[in-house]
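Figure 2 data, in text form.
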Amino acid sequence: MENTALILIDLQNDYFGSFEGAKWQLYETELAAANALKLLNKFREKNMKIVHVRHEFDMENAPFFAPNSQGAKIHNTLTPKENESQVLKHEVNSFKGTNLKEILDDSNITNVIIVGAMSFMCVDSVTRAASDFGYNCFVAHDACTTKDLEFNGIKIPAPMAHAAFMAGLEFAFAKVHTTNEILELL
């Protein structure tokens, strides 16, 4: 796939159970990050466009991803290299208030592969926005993660929440595949 970028969303320390002091642990983050790393390594090997997106809350007493904290840093297994683009965001949607679209357009990107966290929030938001902007979207579902949810007294285990959001994205916004399936496309 020519003109393709890998977008890694919010794979930051506060989401990792293996990070001491993690403030917002997600379900099997390490497994999702290991799959994201497979894609990251392939993109590095092929010298393809890579964009790391990092979230910091723009408020005092942030629940997680506090500005300039260790928890807000990208996990050391996925540390950006000097030639890879980095975007700092303060909103759920990685395009809102950032230069993400400029970065993609300046590199003539038409296809985006999305990985990261959280499936029901930032991954969902960036995928829908990217689709609306006309990019061909692919989500590596096993390189994404989320947490247990609750709504109106109904508890939703993380794997079910993840599956529901991946189904919604696949229905109208993206091709949703495994990491290995996407690696075969590259």
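Caption note: The first strand starts at residue 4 and ends at 9.
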